[in-house]
Structure formats: C-alpha cells, structure tokens
Amino acid sequence: MPILSWSRSYTRHEAGQDGLAALIVTIMLIPQSLAYAMLAGMPPEAGLYASILPIIAYAVFGSSRVLAVGPVAVVSLMTAAALGSVAEAGTADYATAALTLAALSGAMLFVMGLLRMGFIANFLSHPVIAGFITASGILIAMGQVGPLVGVKVSGASMPELLHSFWQDRAAFSGQTLLIGALCVAFLFWVRRWMKPSLRALGVGPVLADILTKAGPVMAVSASTLVVWGFGLDVAVVGAVPAALPPLTSPSFDLALIKDLAMPAFLISVVGFVESVSVAQTLAARKRQRIRPDQELIGLGAANLAAGFSGGFPVTGGFARSVVNADAGAATPAAGIYTALGLAIAALALTPLLYFLPKATLAATIIVAVLGLVDLSILKKTWGYARADFVAVAGTILVTLALGVEAGISTGVILSIGLHLWRSSRPHVAEVGLVAGTQHFRNILRYEVITDPAVLSLRIDESLYFANTRYLEDLILARTAEDAALRHVILMCSAVNEIDMTALETLEALMMHLKDRGIALHLSEVKGPVMDRLQRSSFLGHLTGRVFLSQHEAFASLTNHA
Amino acid sequence: MPILSWSRSYTRHEAGQDGLAALIVTIMLIPQSLAYAMLAGMPPEAGLYASILPIIAYAVFGSSRVLAVGPVAVVSLMTAAALGSVAEAGTADYATAALTLAALSGAMLFVMGLLRMGFIANFLSHPVIAGFITASGILIAMGQVGPLVGVKVSGASMPELLHSFWQDRAAFSGQTLLIGALCVAFLFWVRRWMKPSLRALGVGPVLADILTKAGPVMAVSASTLVVWGFGLDVAVVGAVPAALPPLTSPSFDLALIKDLAMPAFLISVVGFVESVSVAQTLAARKRQRIRPDQELIGLGAANLAAGFSGGFPVTGGFARSVVNADAGAATPAAGIYTALGLAIAALALTPLLYFLPKATLAATIIVAVLGLVDLSILKKTWGYARADFVAVAGTILVTLALGVEAGISTGVILSIGLHLWRSSRPHVAEVGLVAGTQHFRNILRYEVITDPAVLSLRIDESLYFANTRYLEDLILARTAEDAALRHVILMCSAVNEIDMTALETLEALMMHLKDRGIALHLSEVKGPVMDRLQRSSFLGHLTGRVFLSQHEAFASLTNHA
Predict the structure, then answer these.
(1) Do B535 and A384 touch (CB under 8 A)?
(2) CB–CB of B526 and A429 under 8 A?
(3) How far is Cα B156 from Cα B142, in angstroms, rounded to an integer?
(4) Chain A residues with beta carbon closer than 8 angstroms to that of B494
(5) Which of A22, A221, B13, B405 stands 20 to 30 A from B46 (CA)?
C-alpha cells in the first residue's frame, strides 16, 4: 500500500505544506461539492459526503501524491444519466441507486486493478476523450441554464434538455436570473482579473492566491446573505442536515445491479482515464511516476467508500488536483486534512446553506465546465487524420443527441471500427531497389530498379482474418495478366502476425500462382512470425524460398545486384 | 444482372447438361427440403416452397453458375433458435415470423450488396467459422435424436436439448427407433458403399451416381411404405397441402422486426460466408471468379423471394452445389429447372408424404450434419496460434452451452478482441546491423553490430491509440538507466499508421527524452505515414532527423558503416 512508503518518514515541514494545501482545497471544494451533487441529482450534503471518506480511501490506496478525488463534472453528469433511467431524482430509490452505482463502479475498478487491466483505458483514444469531455461540458452548461433562470430542466441529451426547458418556460424568474447572472459575471471576473487586481492593490502573492480560490465561497456567501436579507423569492437549497457522513449500504438487488452495470463500467473507465491523465501530468512535473494499476485500486477504494458513506461516483478532478499541487501538497496526507476540513464543514456550516440560491451553484458549474469545452480538436484531427476526425465528430454528435453513454460507446466503437476497417484494406506497395543501396522502396515514389520476371510486394499490415481476402484478390488481380512473371516476393517487414486464416489463404494463393507457373517467396519475415510458420506445414510445400532480406531475394532471383 | 450474360448465348447442349443436373439435384433436394423444414420448426411444404422461388431469384441475380440455394442445416438451426424466442413452433405467428426473418435477412443482404459491404464477412475468421459449423452440427444431431426415437426435443442449446429430452423420455418409441436406426444405417451405407457396390454389379457410372444421390429418396419411400403397409404407430408428417408456393407477406410489425433484426443479421452473415466459400471453391475449379458483392444481391433476392412465397431463410448449400456442378450444370438455368421439378413435387407428390415417418427425416439430417463435425480445427490452431485456438474453443463452447447467436457473436468478439489485445502490446525488437549488409535484425536473434550511444528499436506494429501508452512506457523504461545513450532511432518499417493519439504520445516521449539529452530519430517511415506527419507540426520540432533507411541513420550517427 502506497501509504506505507511516505508515512514512515513524514516530517513537520511536510505536515505544514500539506496543511496549507488542504486549507485551500477545502475552501474550493465546499461550493464545488454542493454544485456537483446538484448536477448528479443528489441532495447537497451528498456532495460533501462524497468528498470525505473517498479522499481518505484514495490517500491510503492511490499512487499519486497530489490527486484530489471527489465529485467531478463529467462523472456527475454520467451519474445523473444512469440514475435517471432507474429512479426519480429526489427519491430514496434514487439515493440508493447512487450508492449502488458508486459501489459497483468501485468494485469494478478495484477488480480491474487487481487483474492489472489498466490497459482497457487505452481503447479510449485521445480525440474521443477530448470530444466526449467537450460535448459533456456543453450538455452540463445547457442543463444548468435551467436553475440559473428558475426553470426546471431535466434530461440526458440536448433534445431532452431543450424540450424540458421549453415545457417549463413559464417558471422563468427574473430575480433568479439576476442572481445567477451576477454570479456568473463575478466568477468569470475572479478567474481572469481578481488575482492581478489584488496584486495591484499590494496584496501578497499567497494571500491573493487564497482569496482567488475563495471566489466561489464568496459568491455562495454573498448570494445567500442577499436572498436571506432581502427575502427574495428564488429556489434555494433548503434544509441540509448537519452531520458526519452516514454509514449507508448499496442495494444488492440483482435487477438494479444489472441495469446499472453498463453505466458503472463506462463511469469507471471514463473516471479512470480522466484521473490517470491528471495524475500523470502532475507526476511528470516532479519527475515522479504513477502506476496505472495502483490508480485503479485507489479509485476503486474511493468509490467503494462513497457507496458506503452516502455519496455517489467520484474520481480525480483536474482543477482541484492542480490547486492541491500548486499549493504545495507534499504527501497524500493533504487529502486526509482536506477530508477533515470538509467533515467540519458538513457538521458546522450546513445550517448556513438554507438560503443558498440554486442559481449560484448553477453559476459555479457553468463557469467551471465552459473551460472544458474545446472544439479545436475537430480542426486538429481534420487536418491530421480523417479517421480520428470521424471518431471525434461522431462522439460529440452522439453525446449531444443521445447522451453520455451512447456518446462514449460510439466513440470507442468508431475508433476500433475505423482501425479495423483500415487494417482490413492495407496499403500494399510494389517495391524496387534504390540504386547503390540494399534498400527497397515504392516504385511509385522513388527511382528504383525492377525486373519483369520478379514482382516484389511490400505488405504494410499484419496478415489476419480481416484482410486476407482483400490481399488475395489484390495479388491475384495484379498477377493475372503478367505473362513475364515468374516470381512473387512478399516482403514481410511490416507483417507482425500471420494468423490461421491468413495462413490458409496464403496456401490457396500459392496454389493459384503455382498453376500459372509463378513461385511464391517470402522475405524479411520477422522472428516471431517465422517461429510460428515453422510450426505449420506451410514452409514444407512453399513453392519458393524464404529470404533473410529483400535484397538477398532480389539478388538471387535476378541479375541485378 | 448476371442472367443477361449467359442467357443470350444459351445452347441446346447446355440445356441438356442443365436438365440432367437439375434432375439429380431435384431428387436430392426433395427429402432435404422436408428435413430442413422440420429442423427449422416449419411444416414440410415450407421446405419445398423455400427451394422454388428463391432458386429462381438467385438464378437471376447471383454470380455463381452452379450455386444451389435453399434451406441448409446451419441456417435452419439458426432460424429455429431465432423464431423460438418470439413464437411457438407450429403456430401461425411462427410461420409469419419465419417469413419476416427471411425477408429481413434478404433486405439486409440486398442492401449490403448495393453498398458493397461484402467485407463484413471478413470479420468471421476461418477457425471461428469452422468451430461454429462443428458446434452447430453437434447441436443439430443432438436435436434430431429426439424425433429419431419418438421423443419431443426442443431448445437452442445443449443443456436445453438434454433437459427437454429427459422431460419427455417416457414418449420413447421402439418402433420409431427401429425405423430411424435402419434409415441411419442405410444412409451411411449409401454414402460409403453404394456406388462401389453398384459399379461392382456392372451398373454404369452415371446411373450409379444418380442412384446414389437417390439414396435419401429411397429411404423416404421405403419407410413411408412400411409405416403405411404395417400400420406402424410412429410420428408421421401428416397432411401436406398439394399446392404451388403461396403468395405470402412478411409482417411489418416494428416490435417483431426489432426482435428479429439481430438474428436476421447473424443469419445473413453466416449464410453469406457459407455461400461465398462454396461458390468460390466451385468457381476456382473452372478458373471462374465470383463477385462477393453480387453474391450478396443474389442471396438477398433469394431470401426476399422466400419471405414472399411461404418459405424461411435460405442460403447456398455445399452438398447440393457440388452435386449440381459434378452433374454438369453449365448455367444458372439448371437452377430454374430444379425449381420446376420441385414445383411439380409440391403439386403432385405431397399427398404421398402423409405416412412419411419423422424419424426418416431425422435420420437424413443426422447423416448429413455429422459430416460437418470436425474437431481437428482445435488441434490445428493449438499447434499454430493460441489466439486462434481460444477463438475457436470459445466459439464451440458458447455455441453448445448458449446457442448459435451467442456462439457466433462470441467468435467474432473474441477474434477481434484478441487481435486488438495483441496489437495493443506489440513486439518491439532492439536491432543491430548484420555485418557485411545494410540489413538490421534483432540483437537477440542475430550476431549484429551495435553502438552504445545509439539505440535502434524496430516497432512491429502500427502506432495507434490502443498501444501508444504501452510503447511509451516500454521506451522510457528501456532508456531510463542508460547513461551512454544519445540517440534513439525508431525504425518504422512496420509502422503502417500513426494516429492522433500516437502522435501526441510521440511528442510527449520526445520531450521526456530531450530532458535527458537524448535525440529521437525516425527511419524507414513509409510514404503514407510521412505524408501525414508532414501535415502536422511534429517534424518541425523533432529533436532528431528522419532517415530514408535504418542503415543511413545508423551510419550517420555512428562510426560504423
């Protein structure tokens, strides 16, 4: 367990650093936790609970020194989408489903960690993740426009959100909008201008930084005071119990578990990918490394903790982890102190939240997620590779149109499908000798030496079931009307595998060529591929030979050297 | 349309050949059609109907000259499994669902043909198909043991079949078993010994051949006569209407179509793969070629015809096509004559089927499908490639345990998954110069020249999202403690693609290496990959160079030549 490595040599200096970082992160996390709970359809205290025990569990099991776990925007949106299909927000069933989702996701992550299955995350390509986060940001912002103006909005996709907004448009409240708009403006100002302004006023850099991080807390306090003082008629958070996280139990109802299994898996993978990339970025800065499989265990423990302490799915958040690292967190103890700070808040501050307007929370969410929206990935992929563009565009469109689960699944299926499609129609180059070298290149791109009796084909792909028929057709077509041809050399420098289907196809191809008096040779067959061919009967009745290099093959079959 | 190419020059000689082939195929198809209808859970006449209009439709649209379409064993089994989940065998709903399944499958095949999507079949690897057909053969034979002994057996998987057999074991009938066992013995004798026996008796080769093909017809006639003559108490086919194929309509009920869509797709793909491999084998014998996309259209038309004329899903059958070809069929007109022969049978012979024992049909099925069972693929793949073995073993086990749809899906998912898994952990070889050549090979397998300041890595896979993290970790680990290292050359001869994710990872890797004073070079980058890199900003800040050949790279970075 990672905790054993740092706790033995824990110094007073580190404790001081960790304490300061924890203070700043706690101030930042209080409004964020409340807001993301609202986004997930949960009562506000659940956001605090989801940030207490999970942080401690991660500190014990996780491998990153600075990662701060808790409710984050994208995972909260996915949680709302998953729970919305099994229960009504605000009911006891909904809360139980949330616990179940967290525990399920935690168990999956934990088991994946034990089985060293971190590689699963590799099947989410960078562009797909970027597109998914962008589309999720748009969905979240759109969903929060409702509370910002007093209108009830629900749904897991753009059409549903717009439709519910239109249905409830009569509830529009000017007072709510006023508070919401002021908060949005203030928070944007805090983000861009507060620190330079404070510095210009002569405030020291550390204090200016802490005050800037406290911007959302100020918005929360000020708007609560205004609503309470002026008795405004806007939607408020209402009564929040003052208590430590309760001991709760997820449901063991098999039907519910079956319904939530797929969402839990998607939440696990997306949360893991987000978390690992944050942790890696921050570790690289300090030349540390994180262990992805240990991260799975850490996140698994955190989600299990959330499932047993009144929370909902959590993962490592980018902003809070950066703040934690920047504030000087030296060890995971900073997380434990943060948890203590939030526990005090859950006990002492919750009664003060009664008059907190929901519009303020919506404003903090909107300002946070608009930073996630970045459509430049579309332009970048369009210029570089169309397959990546199709995957990212598909992910964004499907996420907006049908919701997060369909969106991320589409992204994965599209990227795998496009990869298979390309490898099923591989590039095959007819190659010739570059004069004065032993190097062979494409006859269409280079001035090369060839021989009419010898056809050298470089196959730019492994030979496997998906592409063997295509290659067979291509080679038969190329050799069909070539009367001078006596030898075909397949240059296998890019062939990393020949599976059973390909082997059978090669045998058939060899027989076809033999009928026409053409011998089939192989060159530059790699070690692992050759090992396997030697275990089959193929080499025994090969009509040609296997050459170490293409140059050797060309030299011995022609008069060119 | 292929029919236009051969019908213009149709000769009397060809007509004679086609007529003889049609006669032999008709004799063979009558019992087969009845039997496969029983296997699909349909009334016997549906088997005849499924062989009349579909044959004509295929003759018009298909590209093979000898392929004989109609009900076949594996597709009939898949049909029974699909229909069993939406209706009770023997009901009107069941028949309507069968029509709908055929029409749906026909429409899918037709559209796939128009869109040139024949490549979809490539994702069924040879071992998966072999395993699936073997497992299907076992399931079919097991299912027919029921009618062979008078016991009612139903179910789509081995456990279900065994369970239902056990439930109805009291219905066991000695008389039925006697007829069934005699038929099985007779049909095996016909298969192995009849032809040589007839030849030994001085019968001419053509007649001996026709008589052998008539074996099942003899079994049908003899057992019908015995049951009628002795008044045996065994399950018989009963009243069969004497009529031409009726004009029927599939259902347009969306709920039914939704339920049948996935089975229809699987039936289409499996039927297409079976059919195309039969057609290709037979075309290759005569140096003809078939066009897979035209085959899709031909099979699509045949299944649409089945859906509108009282049939059920059909495809090209192996045995009947071989018989058709061997009997000298010269053009698809042979199919049209066969259809006429079967239409006459449907009109004139059906009243004679009343006393035909179901045990006889079960016997013809069992003898036919036992030829499909071939477990040697397990041994072959075990010796050659474990991934293929896992795919074939998984396909067989899941087909037997859970049924055909789960089985074929497992096969496809396993083979794609294993392919992705391997390409996500690619082979990377550290290479050196083979003395006296310009050729570079693995330092672990060959005596090669290397340089401590230069690390040459040959990456045996395309760089794409699924393997970039693995490669990054591997290269960072390899270079971590090597103080003498100044240059890393990635030899890209086997890199057929670098996607966006890989490009971003390469940039990150380059920065890591730069921090340690190591330059990153590329060699042997292929044309298409280089084109793409030139469209990005990567080459602009590459810390090393791009070399045409690995030899050039090694020569310019070291003193070795």
Answers:
(1) yes
(2) yes
(3) 11
(4) 493-496, 526
(5) B405
Q: Residue B125 corresponds to which tokens in the numbers above?
A: 């690897």
C-beta separation of B230 from B178 below 8 A: no
Q: How far apart are CA A508 and CA A492, in angstroms?
A: 18
- Residue B316: in which H helix or E strand, if any? strand B315-316
Q: Using CA atoms, how far apart are residues A193 and A262, in angstroms rounded to an integer?
A: 43
Dihedrals phi, psi of A397, to nearest 5 degrees: -65, -45
CA distance B422 to chain A (A): 9
Is the separation of the CB atoms in A366 and A184 below 8 Å?
Answer: yes
| Residue B310 backbone class (left: φ over 0; alpha: ψ -120 to 50; beta: rest) | left
Please name the member of A445, A462, A500 whose beta carbon is closest to the beta carbon of B127.
A500
B126 to A501: CB separation less than 8 angstroms, yes or no: yes
Q: To the nearest whole angstrom, how far is the Cα of B553 from the nearest Cα of chain A?
A: 13
CA distance B397 to A280: 42
Q: Write out residues 521-540 of A within 8 Å (CB-CB) of B.
A: 526-528, 532, 535-536
Q: Are B27 and B217 in contact (CB under 8 A)?
A: yes
Hey, of B448, B468, B501, B512, which one would you mutate to test binding to chain A, going by the most A CBs within 10 A of its CB?
B501
Q: What angle do CA B498, B504, B509 make, to 5 degrees?
A: 100
The answer to whether residue A169 neighbours chain B at the CB level (below 8 Å) is no
Which residues of chain B neighbour A526 with C-beta distances below 8 Å? 427, 429, 442, 460, 494
CB contact under 8 A, B385 and A500: yes
Per-residue confidence in pLDDT tens, chain A, 561 aa: 777 777 888 888 888 889 988 988 898 888 889 999 999 999 999 999 999 999 999 999 988 888 999 999 999 999 999 999 899 988 999 999 999 999 999 999 999 999 988 888 888 888 999 999 999 999 999 999 999 998 988 888 999 999 999 999 999 999 999 999 999 999 999 988 988 999 999 988 888 888 888 888 899 999 999 999 998 888 988 888 888 998 999 999 999 999 999 999 999 999 999 898 888 878 777 767 778 889 999 999 999 999 999 999 999 988 889 888 888 888 889 999 999 999 999 999 888 889 999 999 999 999 988 888 989 999 999 989 889 999 999 999 999 999 998 999 999 999 998 888 888 888 899 999 988 888 898 998 889 999 999 999 999 888 999 998 889 888 988 888 788 899 999 999 889 889 999 999 999 899 889 988 899 999 999 888 999 999 898 999 899 999 988 999 999 998 765
Q: Which of B389, B465, B515 to mutate to test the interface with A (most CBs of A within 10 A)?
A: B465
User: For A461, which of B469, B470, B496 is closest by C-beta distance?
Assistant: B496
Alpha-carbon distance of A141 to A365, in angstroms, equals 7
User: SS3 for A327-356, per residue?
Assistant: CCCCCCHHHHHHHHHHHHHHHHCHHHHCCC
How far apart CA B495 and CA B247 sit, in angstroms, is: 57
Going by C-alpha positions, the residue among A359, A306, A409, A269 that lies closest to residue A69 is A306
Calpha distance A367→A190 (Å, rounded): 10
Q: Is A460 on the interface with B (CB under 8 A)?
A: yes
Q: How far apart are CA A28 and CA A214, in angstroms?
A: 6
- Chain A: closest CA distance from residue B135 (Å): 19
ipTM associated with this complex: 0.81
Which of B124, B380, B442, B500 has the highest number of chain A CBs within 10 A, making it the mutation to test binding with A? B500
Q: Which A residues, 379 through 438, put their C-beta within 8 Å of a C-beta on chain B?
A: 380-381, 383-385, 387-388, 415-416, 419-420, 422-427, 429, 434, 437-438
In B451-532, DSSP assigns E strands to: 454-459, 487-491, 519-523
Q: Which of residues 237-276 of B touch A (CB under 8 A)?
A: none
